[in-house]
Amino acid sequence: MNATAVWGITREEALELMERYLDTDAMRKHCLAAEAIMRALAPRFGADPDMWGLVGLLHDLDYNETRDHMERHTLETEKILLDRGVHPDIIEAIKTHNAENLGLTRTKPIDFALTAAETITGMIVAATLVTPEKKIDSLKTSSVRKRMKAKEFARSVNRDHIRLCEQISIPLEEFITLSIDAMQSISGKLGL
Ligand SMILES: [Fe+2]
Hints:
With 192 residues, the protein is an all-alpha fold. It is built from 13 helices and no strands. Fe (ii) ion binds next to loops.
């Protein structure tokens, strides 16, 4: 069965949706980065990388509309994806990255993975941009770790959300390394 049959949407269709709904390059790159990390995480949980990738790619689809109304963030996405017949598991996972604002609880590995993954993308981009070369290829795990400890650095990045990786038994250092590797694999698309 192809991805449409299983999950109700293909990667190409998800990319089209992203192009349509997200109006900045930064947000599209953020979603591509989240996708890459989610795909890398999936095999550790015996999960389908296509499904986890789609969750990463589509998680912020309604961001343009809801950025000033976080209590609605992901609920617009839910409507869009339900309309298209996307698998409910994808929609449920997406909603949990806004658990705090929606009164939801993260329970499944994918819930913790998505929140940690989409959050660490911001830390990795910020840490890359302060290296002399501004290239992710030379970014080290230890640099990201150090930046994370500096509270004033990229202060909008929620360290507690990154640390949710530990809830699914991935030590922080390992999670940083995996995330850097995943983003390095698409460095061209990320412009890093
Ligand atoms: Fe996000």
